[in-house]
Amino acid sequence: MKLSPALLIAFLVASAYGKPTARSLVVHETRESIPASFKEVGPAPPDTVINLRLALAQGNFSALEKALMDVSTPDSPLYGQHLSKAEVAALVAPKPETVAAVDSWLTENGIQASKASLAGDWLKFNITVSKANALLGTTFSIFNHTQSGRTSIRTLAYSIPAGLKGHVDLIHPTTTFTQPIHAPKLTFTPRKGVQARALNVTSDAAPASCATTTTPACLQALYGIPTTPAQVTTNTLGVSGFIEQFANQQDLRTFLTNLRKDMDPSTTFELFTLDGGTNPQSPSQAGIEANLDIQYTVGIATNVPVIFASVGPDNADGDDAGFLDIINSAIACDTPPTVLSTSYGGNEDEISTNLVTNLCNAYAQLGARGTSILFSSGDGGVSGTQSQQCTTFVPSFPSGCPFLTSVGATSGIAPEVAASFSSGGFSNVFPTPSYQAAAVSQYLTALGSTNAGRFNRSGRGFPDISAQGENVVIALQGQFGLVAGTSASTPIVASIIALLNDLLAQQGKPPLGFLNPFLYSAKGASAFTDVTSGSNPGCNTNGFPARAGWDPVTGLGTPNFAALRAAIGV
Ligand SMILES: *[C@@H]1O[C@H](CO)[C@@H](O)[C@H](O)[C@H]1NC(C)=O
Ligand SMILES: *[C@@H]1O[C@H](CO)[C@@H](O)[C@H](O)[C@H]1NC(C)=O
Ligand SMILES: *[C@@H]1O[C@H](CO)[C@@H](O)[C@H](O)[C@H]1NC(C)=O
Ligand SMILES: *[C@@H]1O[C@H](CO)[C@@H](O)[C@H](O)[C@H]1NC(C)=O
Ligand SMILES: *[C@@H]1O[C@H](CO)[C@@H](O)[C@H](O)[C@H]1NC(C)=O
User: Fold this and answer.
1) Which residues line the annotated binding site for Ca(2+)?
2) Domain interval for residue 309
3) Which UniProt keywords apply (predicted)?
4) Which of 301, 306, 336, 543 could be cross-linked to 536 through a Cys-Cys bond (beta carbons 3.0 to 4.6 Å apart)?
5) CATH value at residue 405
6) CB 340 within 8 A of CB 311
7) Are residue 330 and residue 358 in the same domain, yes or no?
8) Is the residue at 66 inside a domain?
9) pLDDT in tens, 369-416
10) Side-chain-facing half-sphere of 120: CA atoms under 13 Å
């Protein structure tokens, strides 16, 4: 039998009326176009089951933000009085009417969701593509990331019932198209004859060899990092691991044996896994990024307990990132690490604005708990985390979030200069926070019309600080070699903060927590060595020049341990 056109139309109309989701839908998030690195393959098969996350509007984020600033601003009476897990959860928990509105929508569509965060501001549920298409008034498609061949199910727009505006923050993964994250620039160049130099960190300058080969001894001499072992075992340093980057114990031992002769070579790290993460130890599975991050935390933050958090593939991003899960899991910890070092990131424009904001708010929650969150700024200069074709500058994420500390890279010694790959710039989502307003304004005035129209003058500027990121020696598969990237700078700074936290804890004082209000204060800024030359080219420009004062290449400069110690009074 052949359906006549009239019949076909009648059939479609009937089926549309039959849908249980017949509330009036309004567009909630959209993306103008498919990012250049992705290609649409076709509609997603209707029976495929996807795992969606739904963020509910948080109850009182502005109170959380205020609390974060109060506990992180040195001259505030509440400085250092970090919030408990329950206090944070109470501020961000969705309001009862929000929970009720979302619950009834899901229930009437036969969806059973479970809680995906401590405060209940994230829910998760499995749903077929056909049902999700109807629920969200959209058509999910398969997209191919052509460089990696990895496919994901996404859409360029989705809707929610009009009555849920103000209750639903976002649904994910939908309009976020992240590149498979990887640590760019991290090519490993084997090098023979790497030696530990015995240096007296209180009196010796970094030797000339440090200009071409960065070792722990070089960093100790350059930044005055003590070799004295930390004492407080509850003061932990977390290191994020993604995309099956595994940290190898034997390589760590090789590294310590040769480059930290004063340390017990069996010093190691603890493993924490989520989303099916693992840390297999066969030499061929050692990851450059993971080895770098572990060797420059265990090997610099002497005796600070280091936790390697290996995030597996079963995560909320529906791909291999897991940024959401690692942060929500840290927020749910009774005693989160006092420092969290992450050398991964993406570009701000790949991620939906609502998700960018939601993740950034999650960093604020962990900061309020007293964790210093450090992220690498990226390795593509002004063109984003990796170099790419562009006309306007590409801010990286999460570095553009104002509630974390972004770390750029330097190279050379006496003086240090900006590493040309060091990503920096200004967010298109977050405005300049007040703690850096004066520093950013001074820079923009000096910059004049250079790069005008290529970046957002009202955005949050990053990075905040920097450290060595070129010619950094690591051990990999039993060999020594050199790597470069803000990926190296970040664990170095994280180690310094962790050692400072140990000194504070020895005196019964709280950890430094969210660092930026301190860093940009007169006392904080003067504990950094200003880096005033070099730039970060990209997008066919010379990028931003480093200058006296803060700049979007090296931030406020590189750390001086003794000065930091004096500034915080330990
Ligand atoms: C948010 O919390 C603050 C401080 O606890 C309180 O004064 C304010 O009324 C709350 N606002 C809302 C909308 O709940
Ligand atoms: C969704 O399905 C996955 C398997 O694909 C399963 O591991 C998970 O528990 C399910 N989640 C929910 C909320 O049912
Ligand atoms: C994805 O793109 C790559 C490169 O163009 C191609 O080789 C591959 O067949 C594509 N995969 C799909 C599922 O279209
Ligand atoms: C390191 O140098 C300082 C200052 O010159 C000196 O007081 C100290 O004894 C030296 N330490 C070692 C282990 O040589
Ligand atoms: C510039 O940044 C502000 C936030 O500071 C944002 O509201 C605005 O949309 C951004 N402009 C562009 C063109 O992205």
Assistant:
1) 530-531, 549, 551
2) 189-568
3) Calcium, Glycoprotein, Hydrolase, Metal-binding, Protease, Secreted, Serine protease, Signal, Virulence, Zymogen
4) 543
5) 3.40.50.200
6) no
7) yes
8) no
9) 999 999 999 999 999 988 889 999 999 999 999 999 999 999 999 899
10) 14
